[in-house]
Amino acid sequence: MKLADRSAVVVGSGFGGLSTACYLADAGADVTVVEKNEQLGGRASVLERDGFRFDMGPSWYLMPDVFERFFGHFGRSPDEYYELERLDPHYKIFFKDGDSVTVTADREATKAAFEEYEAGAGDALDAYLEEAEETYEIGMEHFVYTDRPRLRNYVDWDVFKHARGLTFLGSMQGHVEEYFDHPKLQQIMQYTLVFLGGSPKNTPALYNLMSHVDFNLGVHYPEGGMGGVVDGIAELGAEMGVEYLTDGEVEAIRGSAGDFRVEVDAEDGEGEYLRSDFVVSDADYAHTEQELLPPQSRQYDADYWDSRTYAPSAFLLYLGVEGDVDPLEHHTLVLPTEWNDHFDTIFEDSAWPDDPAYYLCVPSETDETVAPEGHSNLFALVPIAPGLDDDPETRERYREFVLDDIAENTGVDLRDRIVVEETFCVSDFTDRYNSSEGTALGLAHTLRQTGPLRPGHRSSEVPGLYFTGSFTTPGIGVPMCLISGQHTANAVLEDYGE
Ligand SMILES: Cc1cc2nc3c(=O)[nH]c(=O)nc-3n(C[C@H](O)[C@H](O)[C@H](O)COP(=O)(O)OP(=O)(O)OC[C@H]3O[C@@H](n4cnc5c(N)ncnc54)[C@H](O)[C@@H]3O)c2cc1C
Cys staple from 343: which of 94, 180, 199, 411, with CB 3.0 to 4.6 Å? Predict the structure, then answer.
């Protein structure tokens, strides 16, 4: 089906927006992507300062198969835009009791490391990963790539046939406990839930597929970091005629199919209107509905958005430092042996965590172009509750605390050799991305917010208005947002394609 002679405006240039733009342009539409900020990529923005280049958001290039399939749809492959390097080790974990474990690409070595914690854990890992692989293959084909926007779409033979044996509804906590007793092994199998914005207690066991992603498919680093992937996809779009307008904040969406008027507040203060047949919003769903649409065009009221479970926000500390940061690896996790308190401060009683689990990313371990010679580039990411007050004094206090914690638990003292530094937190997510409650990730993947229970790709109130990105299905994460762009474009084609 084609969309020849039709025009579309895509609001927001995150991966969901860039992906939708590619699919719509490929179908023949004239597409303009309008982005509020000075660069494309949304939460995958890049910060450049004094010879350091930081990926501000995503840093784990997971599910390489999804990127292959995305570029493959357009007759291209990722390596025409960026090279990939497989990381080995995948990551290292420092437990705060002085213990550490490194997960490598070598399954036998990882099994041996697991056996150190618990007799039989090596075989349990094989069994766990076998199930995770099955869940991944079934889940991706029948639930992620197949869009099922309504609950009734689940009532079909295909779902029954393939849902057989899947431990869908229990919690990840219960699922992991069936395989591993040792709390540290449980933590290793569960840390990927942070990618989904959930906790082991509130995320359905279906997401054990993340372990297949991590252990079997491997962890890769794209040339140029995640910013290189943004550039690659934007270039692909440009080759198909997509136009990009940065420094343009959309202030209102009016009209409907065939006659949209998108009001843009350009950086130079000159307001302008864009006319289009369709509009796709990749901006946060709540922002689009509450701020850009008139009340009669909204599908959900303020109570709906207030009652959602938002994924965590984050305290981020971008650091350029002198010298090396051994023994940190490219991906390093620092975990307290008891981490439930941290999850409680995110999902139960909102507070700054006083014994946090956090992530350190050191791309200069792999890529010498991200830091000047003789320096290291890293960031620390502490997941925190959305909506937390992040006034300057609190941020300063927390910065000191995190630097102390890194020194104490990894042995790497950064405090006297920082040459470039920037923090990013709840209010910055709201200011920079119009993020609801300052969430870093969107809507958490709780059972009540998974699949058809997420807000839809089509507006039920405004014909011709669509949504994409991490608030919609399939959900959070770069690969998911790429797929969401395909679902959204398919919805436009189903409704208006000829
Ligand atoms: C710190 C962090 C770490 C992460 N780590 C990973 C990881 O390692 N791996 C992974 O796969 N995923 C990771 N993610 C998640 C991933 O980055 C996101 O799920 C994904 O990038 C979101 O894409 P999106 O399509 O939802 O759009 P977004 O990236 O949310 O972009 C939306 C865009 O809309 C723009 N916008 C908003 N309002 C307007 C307006 N009124 N007018 C014009 N433009 C507007 C915003 O400026 C923004 O550019 C991480 C995210 C963060 C924040």
Answer: 199
